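Hello,

Following up on my earlier ticket. Below are the two sequence lines again, exactly as submitted.
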Amino acid sequence: MTVNAESTVARNTALPSEAPLDEPRGGRRRKQGGKARIWLYVALILTGLVIIVPLIWIFLTSFKTDYNAINQPANPIPNPFTFDAYQTLLSSGQQPIFRWFFNSLAAATLQTVIILVTASMGAYALARLEFAGKKIVFGAIISTLLVPPVIFLIPNYLIVQNLGWLDSIWAITIPGAAGAFGIFFLRQFFVGLPGEIEEAARIDGAGDIRIFLQIVLPLSRPAIATLAVLSFLTNWNDFLWPIYVLLSPENLTLQPGLSVLQGAYSTHFGIVMAGAVIASVPVLILFTLAQRQIVDSVASSGLKG
Amino acid sequence: MASTSIAPVVPQSTSSGGPGRGRKTGTAYLFLAPFLILFCVFVLAPAVYGIWISLHTWNPLLPVHPFSGFDNYVDLFTPGSLTFGDFWQSMAATGIFTVCSVPFLLVIPLLIAVMLNQKIKGSTIFRGIFFAPYVLGVAVIGVIWKYLLDPQLGVVNHVLEAIGLPSRIPWTVDVPWAWVSLVGVTVWWTMGFNTVILLAGLKGINAELYDAASVDGAGAMRKFFSVTLPGLRPVMAFVTTVTILASANMFGQSYLLTNGRPGNTTRSAIMYIADQGLAQNQMGAAAAMSYVLFAFLAVISVVNFRLQREKTE
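Thanks for your patience. The regenerated structure is below:
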């Protein structure tokens, strides 16, 4: 980006009439741009506050006493500061949030592993091998990217029921791993890998399994890491499917569990907010650690057209 | 959308085989097998099975599911049938939500992206903050805003009261406020996603175009409309399509925040279909509804795609 384009847009959004066009990079520009710049920061900081204040408020509410959570909604400060809400949650037999947490962790991990294995193998074939029916297979896979998930809701429920998977971890991991996104995402990356190392390995007599395991996978570490994070997040946050296929309280994951908490504790908001915090902390940590991968993969999704 | 935006990425080089690049049909299908088995069982089969279900009166609690031809579809278009009123009310709810949320989800992220596209300090931090709510699940979003917007005990009304503004707003229980809440919460939750995509699009616009526009004496506004927006068009088309489809698939916000209230006014199409099929045991009717919704979305996608292409030409 050039300074020119940047200052143009800055004026446009903040102070359209302030700075003249085509100003040199001198002190005068800096001074006038400075005023526009302040408004720019003001706008960004205000937007940031709108985003972040509700989250902080919820976090603080989870440390209030039950009484204060209900009776002092306008005061965000937990006084006294307690872990009552968390203690109530963790000791509840009816809503075993600890169990839900591990169910969520197990399901998200299992589905991520299944996706990484099946998608990377399939993507290798689609990206690096020539074979009969390739266009049909690839076409079938990407055409389902356009189908709204609701189409699969009723039939997959019956399929999962017939497999005897209702109310089990299989219901919330296997069907979701069949989606086209993972294989498509990795194929796009594998296609872009340079062919030379692979050709050299082939001349040395390496087969496809070795090339896949020892060349393609190691070279694709960033893409695989990104897919792992995205898959984990998607499964962890899944809501519609688990509320219908998970039945017994001890088999729930955190997201449908939150809905149960909301029903069970209706106005005891501190307890429900503690549940929301427990469901959010792992993904927010993951986001903090993998922010670049997550944001970059989203950013590039629009550039393919 | 996805498929159309994807095609150009396919490089030419892979299809021309180098040495050792003969056809390897057997090997390829061995590599593809694990994925294709899952894909056939949980994507292809249900897509067809769903049509089959929709042609039956399918109550999962009964041993027999009598074939009923297109009755489930005909019912959806017959005023006075069991499903007609509720189904179209839910379709209208989804329509209202989509029409109200999509403009905000395009304009606000565009403005923020333009601001973030300046050389400012901490732009990565801002970007991260704006994106953060998007990594939270809809269940978290639903329960926290259910509390914040609770008409009697919620934070928003009490804060409004404390600063002397109207404070008895029925955020989650009456229209139009329920729509304001659903749209507002969705914008708050997902605007960072669109912002990030649009920001990448802005960075891809050739800076020389701005220089050329300056030489021609274009002002800031002029540049925004004749350089920025046209340059952003392909990305904007993608974001528009993805946003329309995401809004049309809205479920969790209605389910948790308003529970469809008042009455069933804010019950979305997905919420009604899921309820009919998986709670009320009307699987045939629900499957038919999902295909009608799909048809609507397909038409909207095609029209949207055509419009975007016409503009480009």
